[in-house]
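Deviations from the work plan: none for this task. Representative record:
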Amino acid sequence: MSETINDKPGAIRPDFAKQDGLIAAIAQCVHTREVLMLAWMNEEAYDETLATGRAVYYSRSRKKLWRKGEESGNQQVVHDIRIDCDRDAVLLWVDQKGGAACHEGFSSCFFRKMTEKGASHEVIGERVFDPKAVYKK
Amino acid sequence: MSETINDKPGAIRPDFAKQDGLIAAIAQCVHTREVLMLAWMNEEAYDETLATGRAVYYSRSRKKLWRKGEESGNQQVVHDIRIDCDRDAVLLWVDQKGGAACHEGFSSCFFRKMTEKGASHEVIGERVFDPKAVYKK
């Protein structure tokens, strides 16, 4: 087949310039393949994730690095990092400590399913932890 | 457990106001759970996806609706739509017609795996089709 991937030899890097310094990062459970969450990384978060093997994101609301699990203890141990064709998104295969990625206590942030062509929805996830007990604010 | 999900009864909608009218949309294969791609939806794309059962995105580069497969024929038949906790991302479970979501001809856009802590990478995907044959430009 013809070759159209324009990779230079060696390392490729995400293109942080495209989206105000940020790339999208999808976390997927390495064991079950459940999609856990979508978050953002700036270059510092990406490099720290690669260096430490723990998922580090950039919180757009708090405007600072977000070392996943720093408050809840539920770290994400990174097994694999994949980068997409246009280099503005990465896919992490993670081992989610504590079993829940979502701050609402569900394994996945995608715990609501749209029904009736979007006219309704149902909660399909089961709570792994009680957010009020984990985030003692 | 305590209830902290602030859903009103009935339908919830994505929050399009948060990101310049766009939400992130992850497409995942309904059969294999492979994460296929990350794209964007504006409200019109979201509503058309719900109404038609085919994935419709918004192309930020072309600044218009992108009915996935309109050029390649490789539509995505949508089985499930899930919405995340803060309502700025959706997860689609799709049946990817033609077997490849990526315009480069791979099943997934995430066909490159970072190695050596990001100092190198390898192509892990296998090409399903030849992009030059499908996109006749």
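Chain B touches chain A through 53 residues (CB under 8 Å).
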